[in-house]
Write a structure and sequence with these properties.
single chain, 450 residues, five-stranded parallel β-sheet, 13 helices, flat
Length: 450
C-alpha cells in the first residue's frame, strides 16, 4: 500500500522543468526593459526559415541571440562572422533548452551607430546656431548664367548632371571643378574648390554632388568645417549628394537640397518645350504692347495735327509780340536812365560833403580841441604831483633818523655797516662807527656792558 505524504511533503510545491523555465522567462521579460548591447558576432546561422541565430560576445562573456525574420528584414547589411554590431532587444529564455538569450529587434553596424550619433550631435548643434534657417539661405537663380559643378570628374554624378543640362538647356555654360568626394582629404579639397569658385567670379550657382554610397563613403559631407564653408559661401549652393534617402549635413546647410544629381540639373534648367511656350507667350504680349503703343502714337499725331496753325498766322503773332517787347524795352530804358540820373545827383551831393578840404578843416579843429584838453590835463597832473611830493617829503622828514640825530642821538654801525642794536653782538677791540648829526666818529670797543 502507498504511504500517505508527510506534512512536510504536503507544504512543498514541486515544479516541472518546463514550469521552471517558463517562470524564469516571465521574470526576465517582465523585469528587464529593452536594452542596447554591443558585441562581436560569432556562430552566425541563417536557416531556411529566415530567422537569424548568432552569439554576441566580448572579451569576458557571451550571450545567445535570436532575430526573427519579421525583424531582420529591416537591417541594412548582412551580418557575418566577426562583425562588431549594436543590438537592441529584450532578454528572454528559450524554454526548450533553458538557454538564456537576447531576442534582437534592431541591429546596426557598431561603426555606423557611432557615425550616426556623431551626425545627430553635429546636426543638432548647427541647427541651434541657426545654420539651417531658411532666412539665411540664398535663392537659386531661375536662369543661371554659369553653373559650377563641384564633384569628382570621373564619377557617375557628373555625367548625370552634364547629360541633363545638355538635353534640357544646352546653352548654359557648365564648368566642372574637380575634387575628391570620398576619403579623409575630401572635405578640405571641397572647401578649396568652393574658394576657387568664389575667387573666379564666374559662377552664379554651384552644384555640390556625388553618387550614392554607404554612410562612411558620404562622411566627408558631414564635416563641420565643410558645413561652415558652404554656409558662408556667397554663391548659392545646391547639395545633391547620394540617393534620395541619403541625408548629409551639407544638405541642411546648402541653399537648396536636391534628392539626386539629375534632379539638381533639372532644377537649374527648363525644358526646351517650356521655354518655347514661354517665348510664344512673351512674343504675343510684345505684339499686343506694340499695337497699343502704335495706336497711342497715332492718336497723339492726330491731336497735334489738329492744333497745328498756318505759318503766316504764326508770323503775325510773332511780329505783334516783337512790337510789344520793343515798347516794353523803350519804357524800361527810359526808367533806367531816370533812375541813374537821380542816383548821380545824390552821389554828387555825398561827394561834396566828403571833399578832402572840408575833411581837413574838421580834423584840424578837432586836433586843436584835443591839444587844449591835453595841456590842461598835463598842468593839473603836474600840480597834483608837486603837492603829493611836498606831503611825502614832510612825512619822510618826520620819520627821518637825521632828525633824531639832531636832538643829540647817535647811531652805532659795525665794520660791515649794519646798525648795532645789541651790545653783545660787538666784541672788545672791534672797530665801530658812530654816526651823529654832523659827521661820524670811528671808535674802538674797549668794554661791552650787557
Amino acid at each position: 500500500m502507498t504511504q500517505p505524504p508527510s506534512p512536510s511533503q504536503q507544504q512543498r510545491r514541486i515544479l516541472s522543468v518546463a514550469q521552471l523555465n517558463s517562470l524564469a522567462k516571465q521574470l526576465l521579460e517582465d523585469h528587464l526593459p529593452l536594452l542596447w548591447v554591443e558585441g562581436e558576432i560569432s556562430n552566425f546561422a541563417k536557416p531556411s526559415s529566415g530567422h537569424w541565430y548568432f552569439t554576441l560576445k566580448d572579451q569576458q562573456a557571451q550571450i545567445r541571440c535570436a532575430m526573427f525574420k519579421s525583424r531582420n528584414g529591416g537591417v541594412q547589411f548582412t551580418p557575418k562572422q566577426g562583425d562588431q554590431v549594436v543590438v537592441r532587444g529584450r532578454v528572454s529564455l528559450y524554454e526548450g533548452r533553458g538557454d538564456f538569450q537576447l531576442i534582437a529587434e534592431h541591429m546596426e553596424d557598431a561603426g555606423f551607430g557611432n557615425l550616426q550619433r556623431q551626425f545627430e550631435l553635429l546636426k543638432h548643434r548647427l541647427n541651434e546656431e541657426g545654420l539651417f534657417e531658411p532666412s539665411r539661405k540664398s535663392p537659386i537663380p531661375s536662369h543661371p548664367l554659369h553653373v559650377g559643378v563641384v564633384t569628382s570628374p570621373s564619377g557617375a554624378a557628373v555625367r548625370d548632371v552634364l547629360s541633363v543640362l545638355k538635353r534640357r538647356m544646352p546653352s548654359i555654360p557648365v564648368t566642372v571643378i574637380p575634387t575628391a568626394v570620398q576619403g579623409q582629404t575630401a572635405a578640405l579639397e571641397i572647401m578649396r574648390a568652393l574658394e576657387m569658385a568664389k575667387a573666379s567670379g564666374l559662377f552664379d550657382v554651384l552644384v555640390l554632388t556625388r553618387g550614392g554610397g554607404s554612410m562612411e563613403d558620404l562622411w566627408c559631407f558631414n564635416d563641420e568645417r565643410l558645413a561652415r564653408a558652404i554656409a558662408q559661401c556667397p554663391i548659392p549652393v545646391i547639395s545633391a549628394v547620394g540617393h534620395e534617402v541619403d541625408f548629409t549635413i551639407a544638405d541642411f546647410v546648402a541653399d537648396y537640397r536636391a534628392p539626386t544629381p539629375s534632379a539638381a540639373a533639372e532644377i537649374l534648367s527648363q525644358s526646351q518645350v517650356a521655354i518655347a511656350k514661354a517665348l510664344t507667350s512673351i512674343n504675343g504680349r510684345l505684339h499686343r504692347a506694340m499695337q497699343t503703343l502704335l495706336k497711342a502714337a497715332q492718336l497723339s499725331i492726330d491731336q497735334k495735327k489738329a492744333r497745328l496753325r498756318h505759318p503766316g498766322q504764326r508770323l503775325q503773332m510773332q511780329s505783334q509780340r516783337v512790337d510789344h517787347l520793343e515798347l516794353r524795352l523803350k519804357a524800361a530804358v527810359q526808367k533806367h536812365n531816370t533812375k541813374r540820373k537821380d542816383d548821380l545827383a545824390k552821389s554828387s551831393l555825398r561827394l561834396k560833403a566828403l571833399h578832402p578840404a572840408k575833411q581837413l578843416q574838421q580834423q584840424t579843429a578837432l586836433l586843436q580841441q584835443h591839444q587844449t584838453r591835453l595841456q590842461r590835463a598835463a598842468q593839473q597832473r603836474l600840480l597834483f604831483a608837486q603837492q603829493l611830493q611836498q606831503q611825502l617829503g614832510k612825512r619822510l622828514d618826520s620819520v627821518s633818523p637825521l632828525n633824531t640825530l639832531g636832538r643829540g642821538y647817535a647811531i652805532a654801525l659795525s665794520d660791515h655797516g649794519d646798525a648795532i642794536t645789541n651790545a653783545q653782538s660787538v666784541e672788545v677791540g672791534s672797530k665801530i662807527e658812530v654816526k651823529v648829526a654832523q659827521g661820524a666818529i670811528e671808535a674802538s670797543v674797549t668794554k661791552v656792558k650787557p
